[in-house]
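Regression check, adenosine-5'-triphosphate case 678:
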Amino acid sequence: MGFLDIKQATKSYGPVQVLHETNISIEEGEFLVLVGPSGCGKSTLLNMIAGLEDITTGEIAIRGRNMNGIKPADRNIAMVFQSYALYPNMTVGGNISFGMEMHGIPKPEREKRIAQVADLLQISHLLDRKPGQLSGGQRQRVAMGRALVREPDVFLFDEPLSNLDAKLRVDMRTEIKKLHQKLGTTIVYVTHDQIEALTLSTRIAVMYGGYVQQLGTPKEIYDNPANMFVAGFMGSPSMNLFPAKVVEDGGRPAAEVSLADGKRAAIPFANGTLASSIGRDIILGIRPEAITDKDGADRNSSSVHLVEAPVEVTEPAGSDTFVVSQISGKDVTGRFRADVPVTAGETFKFAFNMEKAVAFDPKSENRIA
Amino acid sequence: MSTAPDTPDTRAIAPAALSGTHKTSGLGLRPARILLYVLLVFFCLYYLLPLYVMVVNSLKPLGEITAGGMMALPKDWTLAPWGSAWSSAQVGVEATGLRPYFLNSIIMVVPAVACSTLVGALNGYVLTKWTFKGATILFGLLLFGCFIPFQMVLIPMARMLGLMGLAGSVPGLIFVHFVYGIGFSTLYFRNYYAAFPTELVKAAQIDGAGFFRIFWRILLPSSGPIAVVCVIWQFTNIWNDFLFGASFSDFDSQPMTVALNNLVQSSTGVKEYNVHFAGAIMAALPTLLVYIVAGRYFVRGLMAGSVKG
Ligand SMILES: Nc1ncnc2c1ncn2[C@@H]1O[C@H](COP(=O)(O)OP(=O)(O)OP(=O)(O)O)[C@@H](O)[C@H]1O
Ligand SMILES: [Mg+2]
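Current build output:
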């Protein structure tokens, strides 16, 4: 039993089930990110934890206490909304104070805590302003202040950064992470931005179509995606996914692919997991950073394999150059160091780090190796 | 309503259109402007003419009117017609002036407007933020209530008032106007609150505020503009109502409109036009006042800043 337990929880609106049976358990102090594309049920799940939505079946417990049927105010949670939801008629101070006032905390204590939180978030000079007189980033801080001041068991964030511009978003992301490290509070955080998910979380639940596709640490999710959806959704640029056939090559299973110039290449797998699946069609998944030039390849990897293939496009991106080649009819991107001499139209020796490769079943889309 | 055409749309478009003319045809702007102003002034005078006639004639002795000088300024300025209309003119059978009926109207209109606005706000709040099965149907029925012609409810309402023991009294009139007002005020507030961010209500719930607390502390303080619209609408309608006033009141509970009619219709002696004019202006003043005072608070953008726009 963890700090926050979601046990077989589901949610239906009438006949439509928008959240299928979900089991998540996290420990105190964890940072759980719910990530997935729009409409996958992230906000629904978060609102169920908050008590803003009833849960149809199953149970949600915080600190071992069953929360079904308990009012949001009595769950000892605080929430930061995507739109910030600051009360327009109250000052910043009033906004931060409102929750404490509703919980009957006496005035001197409220003022002390407001001052502390305002200090922490550097909004002390804004306390007398109305939300309408604040910038987006300042509103965001106030919204966080309103949550922090309650000293809740669990913080809930619903896409708190999605209304900010790119630069501010990165800054606030770092600040949220610092804040989490400093305060050590348990956080459930919803986002559709996979980079936010990877940078902030201690654990990620990738959601799609009302199902939790995979629950794991950022590293597990990134390196060992459970299925093709997770593989394609997490990481940027996303993982290369292309059809291949398992063949035997020198006593080891290898992935046979066709190249743009009509040649075929067999790339041996790092281990023998697929030894019993010779002849099977698979989808091979390999991240761009595992496809490099020979010298850029991971020196610690014992199974780097070179494949000579025509270069279709190069996309210099400052620190890296992305190099695209067609493999089995799909564009496959490799991430090269910026100064590697590679020109479009020529053939080049791509180094595949097969330790990082994964294989999926084309039908079920689940990972098989 | 004709005094407030200054919607943001016209404001935004007008300067752009004018500067467009300015660029393309240089001198074309000025004659167009002058023509526009001439027209506006003309219409303005046209609309103000009746008011002018009423005011000047309420300030002259009856002799000057009967002598045929309707449009002329008074030769002999006097407030006597006003005094008479207020406290001594013959209204119906008694020579009380309009004062008691003016008070009746005030006593009727203030609670009726306040209650229907408040209940409308509460309805709008429930219909948008605490929706339940059948809420849409209920709202449809309330809307339907707005559009039932007054005449249709006269007899059932008279029966109802009789059963409740409110027939022929000011509280009876308050009740009628209150009930009739709910439909419109609900419509106003429902549509306003529909655009009110639901996340604010959720945030307040998490902060520990209950149903009424959220209403009082979060929604109502942000309802200024719509409350003003609603109050102006209800006040004008209820104050100006004649049918309900004539149907459901006794001599001592008549509202201003009915009393004014009685003043003008009193057939004893000569028609005191100057007194009638003064009485008519008295009957119109409160609505005018509401427009002038409340219209100032009719500002947009009170919601700015609650959510990022
Ligand atoms: N009141 C409702 N009635 C019916 N369906 C609903 C209701 N609220 C949400 N849904 C559906 O539930 C699904 C999940 O919605 P949810 O708001 O959780 O998505 P989300 O993952 O938060 O998406 P986004 O990233 O766009 O916020 C959606 O398909 C939505 O259409
Ligand atoms: Mg959402």
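Comparison notes: Helices of chain A lie at 42-50, 92-102, 107-121, 136-148, 166-183, 194-200, 218-223, 228-233. The longest helix of chain A spans residues 166-183. No diff flagged against the previous build.
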